[in-house]
Write a structure and sequence with these properties.
single chain, alpha/beta, three-stranded mixed beta sheet, D-Maltodextrin-Binding Protein, domain 2, 14 helices, 13 strands, 356 residues, 2 domains, disordered N terminus, elongated, eight-stranded mixed beta sheet
Length: 356
């Protein structure tokens, strides 16, 4: 693979974000390219950018991969899935990361490909201080909440799913994500599969036009807002809920069971989608069959250019991929992420080897 060879206010915010991105990412990339002149001839820093969903994983990988060889390091900047794709497409950095599959246009125009690295789950977190018991939600009810059609926690639609729980007469405060986020893509993919109204009015999109709610820039910001706002509900990757100790709802799956996210239930969704061939690298793991399948699961991908700036960087990136699909998988499991199932991992390694 690695051959050597808006509106005015929105526009101002976007312009400011792009400037911040240039301030952080481009110097990092420049440092990676020219570190040999400043340090040692063989020193390389591989720079990646993208989704905040797998940011804790890349933080761990940065630390552990860096122990192998002091002259080959990685740095990761969580700027959002869409921005990560844009940056790797225009040659800034060595890889991108996110939860939205590449389009054919992105693959062609940016000379890009993607490989799954681990499994993630998007969970619904909530703040109901006086709730005793587990909250259950369905895709239909979640669609109604995020469309603004269900406005209070004791609404009949929610009460029907929770007959053994006393729900408060409290306004629902929706926390969502702004444009370009991988968690948006996974969540809207699920809601579009289960609710026709949501599919027609919002659809599957990393940049949905949410009709209600307050935006939080990063996954950690969603967790902080939900933790501090009574009556709130939001969505984050499973790890953010676990580490922040925030309750997550059990979500109805196609088998008619209410399932909470865990390493096992997220892996079960991948098993149901990928077996028996294990080589589809399925673009969608949401709402798949299986009694134990968590219905809002996904791959998180690494986005790669099909050419590299030079032989040394190509070799370093190949080494990173080899590590991700060996020790990196074990490291992911220790961090609490669901590693790729063994059968699928074998197929991904084959593709990675062919592309190198």
């Amino acid at each position: 693979m690695f051959r050597t060879c808006p509106a005015p206010s929105t526009a101002r915010r976007f312009s400011g974000w792009r400037l911040l991105l240039q301030v952080w990412l481009l110097p990092l990339f420049a440092s990676a390219l020219f570190s040999a002149a400043a340090q040692a001839q063989s020193s390389i820093v591989l720079v990646g950018s993208g989704s905040s969903v797998p940011a804790p994983l890349y933080t761990r990988w940065t630390q552990e991969f860096g122990k192998r060889d002091a002259n080959i390091q990685i740095r990761y900047l969580p700027i959002g899935t869409s921005e990560g794709i844009k940056e790797i497409s225009r040659g800034a950095g060595d890889f991108g990361a996110g939860e939205a599959p590449l389009t054919e246009k992105q693959r062609k125009d940016g000379s890009l490909t993607e490989l799954p690295v681990v499994l993630i789950g998007i969970v619904l977190i909530y703040n109901l201080p006086d709730l005793h018991g587990e909250l259950r939600l369905s895709g239909d009810v979640l669609a109604d909440i995020f469309l603004g059609d269900v406005k209070t926690w004791n609404a009949p639609q929610i009460a029907k799913l929770n007959p053994d729980v006393t729900l408060p007469n409290l306004a629902i405060k929706v926390i969502n994500r702004p444009a370009g986020k991988g968690s948006n893509y996974v969540f809207t993919d699920f809601l579009s599969k289960v609710n026709p109204k949501f599919r027609s009015e919002v659809g599957v999109n990393a940049s949905p036009k949410w009709p209600v709610g307050e935006a939080a820039e990063r996954s950690s910001d969603v967790a902080d807002k939900v933790k501090n706002i009574p009556g709130s509900i939001g969505y984050v990757e499973y790890q953010y809920a676990v580490k922040a100790n925030i309750p997550q709802a059990a979500v109805l799956n196609p088998a008619g069971r209410f399932v909470k996210a865990s390493m096992e239930t997220i892996a079960a969704a991948c098993d149901a989608a990928e077996e028996p061939r294990w080589n589809n690298f399925s673009a969608s793991l949401t709402n798949v069959p299986g009694a134990e399948s968590y219905p809002i699961a996904s791959f998180t991908w690494i986005y790669l250019r099909t050419t590299a700036p030079d032989a040394a960087r190509a070799a370093a990136l190949s080494g990173l991929l080899d590590w991700i699909y060996s020790d990196g998988q074990r490291s992911a499991a220790l961090e609490g992420y669901s590693a790729l199932p063994a059968q699928l991992l074998a197929e991904v390694r084959k593709k990675a080897t062919v592309l190198q």
